Amino acid sequence: MKAKQTNALATLLLWLAALAIVGILAWFLIFILGRGLPVLGPQFFTGPNGVGGQFFNSFYILFLSLVFSLPVGVGAGIYLAEYAPKNRLTDVMRLSTESLATVPSIVLGLFGMIIFVNVFKLGFTILGGAATLALLNLPVLVRVTEESLRNVPASYREASLALGATMWQTLRKVILPTALPGLVTGTTLVAGRALGETAILIFTAGMSVSRHLFDLRLTAPGETLAVHLYAVQANPLPGTHAGRVANGTAALLVLVALAFNLLLALPSRWLQHRLSGKRG
């Protein structure tokens, strides 16, 4: 009886914790979207103080940072999980990666400003911001990739190799499809963190935006939605309706994060089925 009561109490506590988390999330969404959704409209993007340029820069810088960091981060994670020998060098590599993942973003922002803004003389540009964001993404991508691949059962590898497949075929046809949900989750977390990053981009991409709505120049200034939200709240200018702009920008950031998660999660499930040889 005592064991049953303990189990029932533990189950109740876990349910209460889960409901509390869902309740906090629901309150957060209702509060942010309730204040910001009425502000959103065509004028919010294209008006005199519209955020169309910042909206475009957010995705442009995110895309560039993932282009820079995904091949290196995923490749390094695959090497550490599948090919690297067990020795002191690989232990140092893992320790260094974990240490880099804990570095505050403002420190990386200062590093990016010194290297890209001052040494390379790029100024406050989209390229400098994306390159520094890539440095923020790399350690997390390496660790997520390595852990996702290590969670694939060893029997999968052994069965594939026993059937005559090469290590590359085993990796491509067996290991990566099985680890895909973990890889997508890690990429989504990295992308969400990059979308909401401010410190790095203030120091490297600047707090101004190009006059052209869709400016693809890598040397253009790169204020994003998160930086714009900080700017309008930190230095509200008279007559700019800073409060409404901040509420609308916050709501837009939440909607972007939700949409981004769905757009990555749904195709990844379909791709996992295709790579695993399933249909339907």
Automatic annotation (TrEMBL):
It is found in: Cell membrane. The chain crosses the membrane at residues 12-34, 54-80, 100-117, 123-142, 245-266. GO terms for biological process: phosphate ion transmembrane transport. Keywords: Cell membrane, Membrane, Transmembrane, Transmembrane helix, Transport. It comes from Acididesulfobacillus acetoxydans. The lineage of its organism: Bacteria, Bacillati, Bacillota, Clostridia, Eubacteriales. The keyword Membrane applies. NCBIfam families: 3a0107s02c. Residues 55-264 form the ABC transmembrane type-1 domain. One of its GO terms (cellular component) is plasma membrane. This is Phosphate transport system permease protein PstA.
